[in-house]
Amino acid sequence: MLTNNGASTSNTVWIEAAADEVWRYVATVSGWKQFLADLSSLSSPRDEIMAGDTVVLVIGELTNKASCVERIEHKLISFDEQYEVVMPDGSLWPYRLQTAFRVQERSGFTELEVIVNGYGRDEAMQWIRECGEMGWRQSLFHLKTVVELGLDLRNEVFNYPRLGVLNYTATAEQLCRQGLDPDRQGGNHIGTAYPGGPAWKAGLRDGALIVKLGGRAVPTYRDFVVALGQLYGKPPVPVEVVYYWEGQRYTTHIEPTYDDQFTGMVDPEAEPLSEVAARRKRQSRV
């Protein structure tokens, strides 16, 4: 959930396992690779991440260079993080955050809380904040399946179809700009409709505001992701999208895509991210 007026996020999961078992997934290089990272490396020649170490995690199109600033065995590990994400158009978006993992065992269960700070309050960071909060919600759910069931469901959790847009929960000002009452109507502002993507092909452009997706109201970013998640595994057919553009209401149909240009589900072992960026730049020339 979003906390501190949106400047921080906090996500929690309860896992039926001992604290030391859960701890290793966030405090060792091998643990990160088992539940989330495609590639992981440490500045020191060992598996455990200690205070002063820097761990590099590559998760699909995202690179996180994380410096461990605090470690209390089986209780807390904190990082200063430098992120860089390859966007669908091949551009690079760097940003910094601070993330802490708190572990506490109770009655045969372990509570793992992820607290992220450092989000800016500008609109450019709103997508990072909402995407990050939802990402940790998905990641902790996946960690639970790994620990309790032994199942690696990364593809099922993260590889839902996309529309090829950068979107976030519309602000009151953005809703008013489309002639909507913020107290009665919410939606997702389209910061970027990427050229060649499904939404772009359907005529949506930067500044559009989506209020319904597949017959489901999408007043928040989380609602938008859930609506797309419900399409996972279903036949690839166009879905109805209701949106506003320059104060007018429109209805169109968009066929979501599993193209890794928009899902982010690239394999950095098979294709280095520098090559991913170059490929996406070529794909964006329409």
From TrEMBL:
InterPro entries (alphabetical): PDZ_sf (IPR036034), START-like_dom_sf (IPR023393)
Matches recorded under SUPFAM superfamilies: Bet v1-like, PDZ domain-like
UniProt xrefs under Gene3D superfamilies: 2.30.42.10, 3.30.530.20
The protein's name in its UniProt record: Uncharacterized protein
Taxonomic source organism: Paenibacillus sambharensis
